[in-house]
C-alpha cells in the first residue's frame, strides 16, 4: 500500500505505536526514594551515587598460598630461610620479617611487615623450621596491594544503576548495610467483564476465565512494581468507577485496566474515566493486535495517577503491556526510558503487505547454521488465541505499510523466550 493511498492517512486519534510510547513516558519518573537493607535491595535501582566506606583490600594481601619473604633474600637460589610464624586470612602475623626469615602465608592473609614478595609453595621445600626457595620469583609477586580493587571515597556505583547480583556484592563490600533506592511504583490491575470468572471455577453459560490479570501482575512485578490485583469489576459504570477510585485512594502510580477499552455499549473504561476527571492522551494506537489502548492521567493530591486501559483480548492485552506497561513501570521505578527492543531476523516464508497499524505477528523461530534467526508466522493470528502465543518464540514486528515480503527478507522480532 503506497503512502499516498487515502487509507494510509491515520484515523484521527489513531496514534503510531512509537509515538504512543513517547507520550506514555513523557514526564514519567520515580516517585520517591526509600532506604532498604542491602539484603533486600536486589534488582532495585540505586537513587544516590554510592561512595565506598572502605579501601579494598585494606592491607597488602597474599594472592596465593606460600611464603612471605624479603626479595633480597632470594636473589641467589636455592635460599634457605627460617620460618618464624604464619599469616592466615583473618589471623595476621603481628611481627616483622627480618633478613633470612620467612612467614608461612595463605591466600587473603595480610603480608607481614618486612616482607615484600610471596613465593608460591610449589616453588619451595619446607622441613621443620626451614623453607628452601628453589625457583625464581619476581619482586613484589603474588601480592594484592592495598586499594588494588577500590579506595575509600571512590564512587563505584552511580545513581540509576540496577542492583544486579554483582552490583549488590560490590555495595556490600563497600560496607553499606542499607541503600537508598527508588520506591517501587504502585500498580493496580483492574479486570472488567461480566463474562469473567477466576480460574478454578465451574463456568456458567457465556462465561470464560479471566486470564489477563495473571499475565499483567507477573509482568508488572518483573518490571519492578509493587503490584496489586483488584479483581474483576462487572460491566457497570458504578462498579468500575468505585474500583478506579479505590486504586487512586490507595496511592496508585499506575492503574492498568483490562477490557472495555473499545467503543462498544459495554466498553465503560473511557466514559468512567471521563466522569472521574481523567485527561486522555490517546484512546487508540495504530497497532495490531490491540488498537483500543487508552492512556489517561489525573493529578490527585499533587501526584500524577497514570492509567493504561488495555483491550480484553488476551494477546492484545499482552502485546500492549509489553509495549507500554512494562516500559512505563520501569521508568516509574527509576530505570532509563527504553522501548521493547526488536532484534533482526529473516523470514522463512512470505508475508502480505501491512496496513497503517504496526503489526505483531506470532511466529516460531529457529537458528540457522550461520546463527541467523529465521522466523515463520502462524497462519491464524486471532487475538484471542493464547495457545498460539505459547507456541510462539517471537513476535514479528511489522512497521506500518511494510510491503509484501518473502523468504529471506529481513524483519525485526521481539523474542518471547531465549532461542
Ligand atoms: P473487551 O476488550 O472487554 O471487549 O473484551 C474483548 C474480548 O476479550 C472478549 O472476548 C472478552 O471476553 C475477552 N476478555 C476480556 N477480558 C479478559 C480477561 N481478563 N481474560 C481473558 N479474556 C478476556
Ligand atoms: Mg469486556
Question: What's the short version?
Answer:
It is built from seven helices and 27 strands.
Subunit arrangement of the protein: single chain
Considering the protein shown, what is the CATH homologous superfamily of the largest domain?
A: MoaB/Mog-like domain
Number of helices: 7
CATH class of the largest domain: Alpha Beta
Overall form? elongated
Low-confidence stretches: 1-11
* CATH hierarchy: architecture of the largest domain: 3-Layer(aba) Sandwich
Share of helix among residues?
10-25%
Q: How many distinct beta strands? A: 27
* Rg, nearest Å: 31 Å
Q: Strand order, main sheet: write it out.
A: 8-5-7-6-10-9
Q: Give the termini distance in whole angstroms.
A: 33 Å
**Biggest pleated-sheet summary:** 6 strands, mixed
Bound ligands, named by name, code or SMILES: adenosine monophosphate, magnesium ion
Q: Please tell me the overall pLDDT.
A: 95
Amino acid at each position: 500500500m503506497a503512502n499516498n493511498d487515502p487509507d494510509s492517512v491515520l484515523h484521527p486519534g489513531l496514534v503510531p505505536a512509537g509515538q504512543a510510547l513517547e507520550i506514555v513516558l513523557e514526564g514519567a519518573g520515580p516517585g520517591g526514594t526509600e532506604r532498604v537493607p542491602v539484603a533486600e535491595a536486589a534488582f532495585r535501582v540505586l537513587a544516590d551515587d554510592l561512595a565506598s566506606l572502605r579501601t579494598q583490600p585494606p592491607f597488602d594481601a597474599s594472592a596465593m598460598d606460600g611464603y612471605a619473604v624479603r626479595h633480597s633474600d632470594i636473589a641467589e637460589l636455592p635460599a634457605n630461610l627460617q620460618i618464624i610464624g604464619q599469616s592466615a586470612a583473618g589471623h595476621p602475623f603481628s611481627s616483622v620479617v627480618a633478613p633470612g626469615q620467612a612467614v608461612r602465608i595463605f591466600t587473603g592473609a595480610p603480608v607481614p611487615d618486612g616482607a615484600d614478595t610471596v613465593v608460591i609453595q610449589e616453588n619451595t621445600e619446607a622441613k621443620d623450621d626451614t623453607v628452601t626457595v628453589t625457583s625464581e620469583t619476581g619482586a613484589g609477586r603474588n601480592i594484592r596491594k592495598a586499594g588494588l580493587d577500590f579506595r575509600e571515597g571512590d564512587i563505584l556505583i552511580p545513581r540509576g544503576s540496577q542492583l544486579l547480583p554483582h552490583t549488590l556484592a560490590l555495595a556490600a563490600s563497600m560496607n553499606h548495610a542499607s541503600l537508598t533506592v527508588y520506591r517501587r511504583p504502585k500498580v493496580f490491575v483492574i479486570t472488567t467483564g461480566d463474562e469473567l470468572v477466576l480460574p478454578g471455577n465451574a463456568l456458567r453459560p457465556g462465561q470464560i476465565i479471566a486470564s489477563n490479570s495473571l499475565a499483567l501482575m507477573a509482568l508488572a512485578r518483573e518490571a519492578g512494581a509493587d503490584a496489586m490485583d483488584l479483581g474483576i469489576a462487572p460491566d457497570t459504570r458504578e462498579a468500575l468507577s468505585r474500583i478506579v477510585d479505590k486504586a487512586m485512594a490507595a496511592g496508585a502510580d499506575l492503574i492498568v485496566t483490562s477490557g472495555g477499552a473499545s467503543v462498544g455499549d459495554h466498553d465503560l473504561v473511557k466514559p468512567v474515566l471521563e466522569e472521574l476527571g481523567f485527561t486522555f492522551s490517546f484512546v487508540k494506537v495504530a497497532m495490531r493486535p490491540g488498537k483500543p489502548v487508552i492512556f489517561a492521567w489525573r493529578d490527585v493530591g499533587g501526584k500524577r495517577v497514570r492509567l493504561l486501559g488495555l483491550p480484553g483480548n488476551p494477546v492484545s492485552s499482552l502485546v500492549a503491556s509489553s509495549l507500554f506497561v512494562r516500559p512505563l513501570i520501569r521508568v516509574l521505578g527509576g530505570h532509563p526510558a527504553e522501548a521493547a527492543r526488536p532484534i533482526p531476523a529473516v523470514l522463512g516464508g512470505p508475508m502480505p503487505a501491512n496496513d497503517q497499524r504496526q503489526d505483531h505477528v506470532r511466529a516460531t523461530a529457529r537458528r540457522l547454521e550461520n546463527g541467523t534467526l529465521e522466523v515463520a508466522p502462524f497462519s491464524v493470528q486471532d487475538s484471542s488465541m493464547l495457545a498460539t502465543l505459547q507456541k510462539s518464540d517471537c513476535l514479528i514486528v511489522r512497521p506500518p505499510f511494510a510491503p509484501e515480503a518473502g523468504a529471506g527478507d529481513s524483519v525485526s522480532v521481539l523474542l518471547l523466550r531465549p532461542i
